[in-house]
Amino acid sequence: MDKTALIESINNGFKSLNVADKYKKEALKNIKLWLDDPLYTDYIPQIEYLVESGKWDLLLDSFYQVIPFGTGGRRGMVGIGPNRINGITITMSAQGHSQYLLKKYGADSATRGVVIAYDVRKFLKKGIFDDGRINPVKEGESIRIAIPPMTEEARKEKVKEVSKKVEEAKIKVRMIRQDVIKSVEEMEDNGVISEDDMHREKESIEKIIKEMNFALEEMGKKKEQDLMQI
Known about the structure:
Layout: H1 3-15, H2 21-36, H3 44-52, H4 56-63, E1 69-70, E2 73-74, H5 87-105, H6 152-189, H7 195-228
Antiparallel strand pairs: 1-2
Helix pairs in contact: 1-2, 2-4, 6-7
């Protein structure tokens, strides 16, 4: 079905719904955007399915608005359209939040990290969409979100962050070493251990510290390799 025929079918289908015209117009506007913009190409087969199946209520509800922000963020059903949770709306949310952080914290926001939450609920009931067609929001029982690969510049920045974290960890290790060495020396001063025992403890501590620093360096190298691997 070509886009003109598709829009005409949707317009006629919406006429059968007892809903205010402003919602129908807004839904049609959003549907046209999703049909015309290459960004939404993978979603078109399921839009066509909803039209062919005459699921006008679902189609209207999925497109009449952009899913709003609530007190706990964006919540809603997973599906096709701007009023559903999918790769497009999740990306929009993440982009908006990123812009807010950049505005509020500036360059420092890049060092604040990212929290990824996982939802264990099933996302889609069977029979809503056509499992025989491409569906960007469903793969088995999981939601799919396309995450664009990092640019080379972004990878290099992450490598710098890794190096910084490794150095910070090594500094903490050195501070721990100093505290432990001091504790061992105090034990020798107080007669708790002999001088020979103190030297053996110090040698053991130095060996452990050396191993910890080596492990940190290796982890850093491995992470840098992972980041630069395309």
